Amino acid sequence: MKAITQIGLVISVIILILAFGCKDSKSLAFISSSAPTKAQLEKSKFIKIFSELDSLPEYQRQNYLQSFLINYPNSPIIEDSSIAIFYWYGKASMVLMNGDIQYGWARPDTMNIISLGGENFFYRIYSLPDDARIDYQFIIDGKTITDPRNPITTPSGYGEHSQCAMPLFKTKAVREYRPGIEHGTVDSLLFQSKQTSLQPRMLKIYTPIGYEYLSKLPTLYVNDGFKAIEYCSYINILDNLIANKKIKPIIVVFIDFVEGDQEYFISKTDEYLTAICDEMIPLVDKNYKASVKPEERVLSGISAGAHISLLTVFKRSDRFLNAAGQSPTITKQLFDALKEINLNEKKHKTFRFYFDVGRYDLLSGAFDNQTYLYANQLLDKEMTKLDIIHSFNIYNDGHEWANWRERVGEVLIYFFSK
């Protein structure tokens, strides 16, 4: 293997373009290729290293590789702020890499192989934006593992992933616990819907410092809230933003996710909306000093939980006028709800939305089986046409908790800024 080829990746892109068709390239992005350009490959010193390794007689490769491993013990290697080199070394006949840049975990890449006798050296080179942050795993002869040479792992809800962060990506300091400030309190409350098909679950209720002296507080409801606490450092962020006077004191209701909720988020939406709006809100308002105004309530979530959050504002604006969604699943229901807006009533002028999506988000599963990126861009365009107040952003990342947690502070400031 003396020549570095990207044939497999090029074929994948062609197949995807044929499958999904051409989009409005002037306004809507499609799929970002992570294949390095010819110029990048020619400039890369690591391409030269791997070519030299491959050109050696097999019995000489081991010594050459050991020198490389001493100088570059960790994977991935970042070169010129735009090239990421991933590698694995050991006894295996095939190594695949899968992750966000493999079209949202849909098409694992086969890593290039250089034989060293009993062991093999595998590598793959990608071009990424200088602020990208992605999750990935290796598949070693069919067994999925994190990168053993990468000490940084992230939570996924499906076990740990390895992380690749490019130089301009910086994790938010607001996520860190600060011992020198006063902290809010987290209580538990059991919620049991009258709809027996909807399983009972616990709620965790955050109340801010000084709560005993406050009243009529804005309230945020968070779908999949227990994972949001665990994976997103949510409590730390709330404490820090309130202490820094970046946001008002608020109440936050973290809703536990239980088996079957996915169906309620996407298809059985009316049942879930009824439970949240007509049962959960009265329960919270009875036990906590929450504002009863719909303009002071926000519903948020990720993925399918983001879908139900956005939809709730259209369906139940008597309860919620604000919603946030991170990598939301976009469905026909959302577009149908937009079509039903009566422009003469101007009620939609009181809506406020926040949503974002990753450039390497999921390949399919959204509206009309489009990519998450494209479907979210369509929603942004429709909201803009209707002059609905909203914030929409595309980030150089994927469908991961490790991405969503970086934007929790932005969501809170957007809705609750002082």
TL;DR of this structure?
By secondary structure, the protein is an alpha/beta fold.
Structural description of this entry:
Helices cover about 30% and strands about 25% of the residues. With about 425 residues, the chain is of the alpha/beta class. The chain has an eight-stranded mixed β-sheet with strand order 11-12-14-13-15-16-17-18, with helices on both faces. Strands 3, 4, 7, 8, 9 and 10 form a six-stranded antiparallel β-sheet that branches. Strands 1-2-6-5 form a four-stranded antiparallel β-sheet. Helix 6 crosses helix 13 and helix 9 packs parallel to helix 10.
Provide keyphrases for this structure:
32% helix, alpha/beta, disordered N terminus, 418 residues, elongated, Rossmann fold, six-stranded antiparallel beta sheet
